[in-house]
Amino acid sequence: MKKHRCGWCIGNPLYEEYHDKEWGVPIYDDSLLFEFLILETFQAGLSWITVLKKRENFRKAFDNFDYKIISKYDQAKINTLLLDTGIIRNRLKINATISNAKAFMEIQEEFGSFSKYIWEFTNGKPIKNNLKNHKEAPANTPLSDTISKDLKKHGFKFVGSTVVYAHMQATGMVNDHETKCFRYHEVGL
Predict the structure, then answer these.
(1) Phi, psi of 116 (to 5 degrees)
(2) Dihedral angle at the C-alpha atoms of 138, 143, 145, 146, nearest 10 degrees?
(3) How far apart are CA 172 and CA 152, in angstroms?
(4) Within its chain, how far is the Cα of 163 from the centroid?
């Protein structure tokens, strides 16, 4: 029997695998939350599939998404990244990733973990929407507006409301799987 998937991923094996195994699964691990934050930052203005295809290149280029290492990147490392054709070579996004690593650690220091900080916005539980079609999903919400403003207040860059909402979807803070999708009931209550 064929599984019903969200319409946005159908037809691309990489998208389907990402949808089936990762998208919308609640993430409470700081390292993974940071990885998705980097990827969403680079996705701003581009399609997610573009970033997904380069994910392993990003992993290599950005020291396995280790925010402690990234926070110490110097101009030589930035220059190396700007020459790396395996990633999205955008100086502003690269610089934002470095400053976001520093802000990430400051939030960890203040709140105990980034996970504790970010999940507090949803009282620690995923928001379960009831989308019949993936096209009903909003690009942003009042909550993503609030989180975006708070992240910016903490020094984050490239975290507009749309980027934040995509991050919320990817990390399971919001369940935007279509109600007929086999993952809708699997990814969180």
Answers:
(1) -60, -45
(2) -170
(3) 21
(4) 8
- pLDDT tens figures, 125-174: 999 999 999 999 999 999 999 999 999 999 999 999 999 999 999 999 99
48 is catalytic: yes
**If you average pLDDT over residues 108-113, what whole number do you get?**
98
Question: Quick one: angle between helices 161-170 and 30-43, nearest 10?
Answer: 130
- Among 8, 15, 23, 48, which one carries the catalytic annotation? 48
Domains of the chain: 24-175 (1.10.340.30)
Query: What 3-state class would DSSP assign to 42?
Result: helix
Structure confidence by residue, pLDDT tens digits, 24-36: 999 999 999 999 9
Of 40, 73, 117, 184, the catalytic one is 40
Pick the catalytic residue from 16, 18, 28, 106: 18
Catalytic residue list contains 165: no
Backbone angles phi, psi at 178, to 5 degrees: -60, 145
